[in-house]
Amino acid sequence: MRISFIALLITCNLSIWAQNKSINGRVVDAETGVVLPFASISFNDYSNGSVSNSEGVYVIDIPTDRMSDSLYFSYMGYETLRVSVKSLMTEGSVSMHSAQINLAEIPVYSQTLSALDIIKLVERNFTENHPQVNQAQRLFYHSYNNTPFSEANKMRVKKTSFVDIDQELVDEVLDVIPEDIKSYRDVIVDFYSHGVERKIVPIEGISLQESTALSVQKKIEEKLLSLTEDIELSFEDDELYYKMGTGIFSTKLELDNSDSEDTDTVMTHADDSTYYLMSTEYLRKDLKNFLVNTTDITTDNLEFINKPKKYNYRKELTLFNGEWVYKISFEPKEQGIFQGVMYIAAMNYAVLQFDYEFATGKSTENINLLGIGHKVNYKKAQIIYEKVDTAYFVKYVNAEKREFFSIDRNFFMVKKKNRFLFDKALNKIKFALDMQFETKNGWELLVIHRQNLTKEAFEGIEEPKKMAIKKELVYSPDMWEHGSVIVPNTELKNFRRGIE
């Protein structure tokens, strides 16, 4: 009873923000009128935080008991702006002024350290400045994918003895695949961490397109119904089996017995056609991997800190929230990958913000083996930290990745019957794949609220197996039951999903 009560208190505390009024507007430079993307917005206790989007537009939900408070707008190199909630209810747009630096006030110690010295101190103090603590966080997590499917992609049947599988059927399957598959998925979850363990409790999920992948899969399965049924029957017959492969490499198709009560598929159809179901375990692992890959000091994506010999650095000074900040610009030497800028607190070398991307002409994971190709063409990320007491925690992450895939290889599938010496081939198909894909993925993560978490409270949290994702045809700010979190950019607002 005590554990359940503590868990209930945490859930209720994180849910207070749902009883609110909404403020929206635009954040701009006071002198030029230029929009300020990804400006941080929060109360002075860092609760109910938000950020402006790539077009400087923001929305934030105000709990009814905080209508007399003020919001703080922060942006690197600008003076922090405090505005009362009441005035923002009348006019939500705000203008921020650049921080004025008095050269006479620049601290002496900043002149004695080189940019490389500062980078080494950032790595040395990272664990202390950015500790892994036990927390309950409410997260907004947005993911986007765009995978064009070109008409130039071909699958050619070279030889077949299957009665129901020929070039005509293959062409029908390819025609089912849309020329441009896009997906948008937004979720709000409570994310619990204690030590190395993680749990999530879904709050709300919305998709503008991801269910299309399920629809396409269903249509392809209908086209290949006779084949899939025959493969399933072979699992029940000890004398029959299917084998697939390419060249000298092949593998026997076997029944996957891992579908137990503890294992769920990533996505499944719900009985209600307005929803589909997603594995909560998959979402939890996805969230954890995303944070590790973008913010962990040991990740290759932060090699401009953990492998400084690969980079050239340039140091400047600026102000943020009235404190001196090192602005370290970096560009790669021959072996480096990224270019960008980072902002480092001058007093303790804590990271306040990263902005990095692939430098011109750089790529990674260049693989071309046996007709299979893969290359990461571009990566970009922005990470903003917030200070809570004496520690710094991730508040917002925006990341993008573009990848190239290619297949130019022959494949085969054969149906066989077991015999004493040599198994007999009953049917066989040979086909050639010549396909190329360039995918674009994007992610956004915002920590709306955080608080400390005890082990007892963590153990009282039960993670459900599935999360319901609501399917929407078009973007609308009213589609959220718990209030909008980050204002979508124009591309998302103008997006309309094809009717299935």
Structure characterization notes:
The protein is an alpha+beta fold. The protein has two domains: 2-100, Immunoglobulin-like (Sandwich), CATH 2.60.40.1120; 128-478, no CATH class. The chain has helices at residues 2-15, 85-90, 109-112, 115-129, 167-176, 211-223, 225-236, 280-295, 303-306, 455-459, 490-493; strands spanning 20-29, 40-42, 50-51, 57-63, 70-74, 81-84, 94-96, 135-148, 154-160, 180-194, 197-207, 240-246, 249-253, 267-269, 275-279, 311-320, 323-332, 338-345, 351-358, 364-369, 372-388, 391-417, 424-452, 466-471. The longest helix has 16 residues, at 280-295. The two termini are 47 Å apart.
SSE topology:
Blueprint (H helix, E strand, L loop, with lengths): L1 H14 L4 E10 L10 E3 L7 E2 L5 E7 L6 E5 L6 E4 H6 L3 E3 L12 H4 L2 H15 L5 E14 L5 E7 L6 H10 L3 E15 L2 E11 L3 H13 L1 H12 L3 E7 L2 E5 L13 E3 L5 E5 H16 L7 H4 L4 E10 L2 E10 L5 E8 L5 E8 L5 E6 L2 E17 L2 E27 L6 E29 L2 H5 L6 E6 L18 H4 L7
Parallel strand pairs: 1-7, 11-24
Antiparallel strand pairs: 1-4, 2-3, 2-5, 5-6, 8-10, 8-23, 9-23, 10-11, 12-13, 12-22, 14-15, 15-24, 16-17, 17-18, 18-19, 19-21, 20-21, 21-22, 22-23
Helix pairs in contact: 5-6
Short description:
The chain is α+β, with helices and mostly antiparallel strands.
Stretches where pLDDT is under 50 for at least 5 consecutive residues are 1-6, 12-18, 259-264, 496-500
For the termini, the CA-CA separation is 47 Å
Number of helices: 11
Percentage of β-strand residues: 35-45%
Please report the total strand number as a whole number.
Answer: 24
> Largest sheet at a glance?
17 strands, mixed
